Amino acid sequence: MEALRALVTTGTTIGAARRLGVSQSSVSRALGQLEQRVGRTLFLRSAGKIEPTAAALRLNEQLDPLFETLALIEGAEWAEADEEPLRLIVPPTLAHNFIITRVAAFLKQNPGKNLQLDIQATDVLVSGILDLRYDLGLTSAMIQRSGVTLVPWLRSHVVCAMPKGHPLEAKEIVTPADLEGVELIEFLRRLGTRAITEQLFARSGVKPRTVAETATNMAALELVREGLGVTVLNPFPVLSVGVPNISVRPFDAPITYDTSFVLPAGRQPSEFAQQFMEYIKSTTPTDDYSEAV
Q1: How far is the C-alpha of 137 from the C-alpha of 265, rounded, in Å?
Q2: What would the pLDDT profile of 81-108 be if each residue is shown by its tens digit?
Q3: Residues 153-162: what's their mean pLDDT?
Q4: Sorting pLDDT into bands at 50, 70 and 90, what band is 111?
Q5: Which of 157, 137, 162 is nearest to 148 (CA)?
Q6: Secondary structure of 147-171 in the HEC alphabet?
């Protein structure tokens, strides 16, 4: 096949031999063996000349992907494949309250590594992993989608966050019944956690007074800090280190949140991705509201 490509490129067996660094007879022998293998006449021989037929030219075109791959294997691009950037995608709350500092620390400990961090909503994260535009995602969302694999590594227990001085601050544990008639900041209905809390309140016969709905934990906590009401949410990562003017109490409900790595289904993570995943797990302390999975 190399002889075929060299002959098509140079136009003569002498030129092909020079390109391949072999004798002219070796090229002629290789071309004859190729004809026997494919069972077709690939070359016209006349008066000491040899010319490729239309079939040989078509075969040469079909070999393009093969030789491109061989060039990568033999060249520097393949040798540097392990140093390709890790394409990471993370939702805003996890990015700004957790992952950015760890990305910085990881890269300082691993000079020469390159990591591309994109910050997008969870639906973009899922589509990007499915399309293989990203190697690794990180989310606390409740994803149920074929084509992606979730690898949970931290489980958090639901809490109730309230403004400092709120009457519920006197309780060690807040129950669903405690929220009867209480101003509540909910999450939008398109988010899985909203359906869970609504079912919980319905089973308990409790009717909080919804005063606002939002899409992110940070937005909900800002509304809480403004004194608008209380909220029931995943404490990780925004409440792991405390938020000024906000009190947090355990919420007596069987609601947990798994923070997971997100990978394309059926594909093993690269060594780089595995190193980063292990680093994240090993450098994330647990607290009163979370535990390692």
Answers
A1: 12
A2: 456 899 999 999 999 999 999 999 999 9
A3: 96
A4: very high
A5: 137
A6: CEEEEEEEEEECEEEEECCCHHHHC
Q: Give the residue-averaged pLDDT of 36-47.
A: 84
Task: Single out the residue of 112, 99, 8 nearest to residue 55, CA to CA.
Answer: 8
Tokens standing for residue 14: 């002498």
For the record, the structure tokens of 220 come out as: 């909900």
Residue 96 structure tokens: 């700004």
Tell me, yes or no, if the pTM score tops 0.70: no
- Token digits of residue 159: 């809490």
| Model confidence pLDDT, tens digit, residues 238-281 | 998 778 999 999 999 999 999 999 999 988 899 999 999 999 99
* Sign of the four-CA dihedral 93, 185, 236, 259: negative
CA of 256: how far to CAs of 15, 150, 170, 196, 291, in Å?
A: 71, 16, 24, 10, 11
Amino acid at 174: V
Report yes or no: 42 and 52 within 8 Å, Cβ to Cβ.
yes
**1 token code pair:** 């096949």
Give CA separation, 185 vs 84, 125, 188, 283, in Å.
Answer: 43, 26, 10, 32
Q: How far apart are CA 232 and CA 250, in angstroms?
A: 10
Nearest Cα to Cα of residue 252 among 155, 194, 171: 171
CA dihedral sign, ordered 15, 19, 24, 26: negative
C-alpha 53: how far from chain center? 49
DSSP code of residue 268: P
* Coil, strand or helix at 287: strand
CA distances from 227 to 161, 230, 245, 254 (A): 11, 8, 10, 27
Q: What is the pLDDT of residue 59?
A: 86
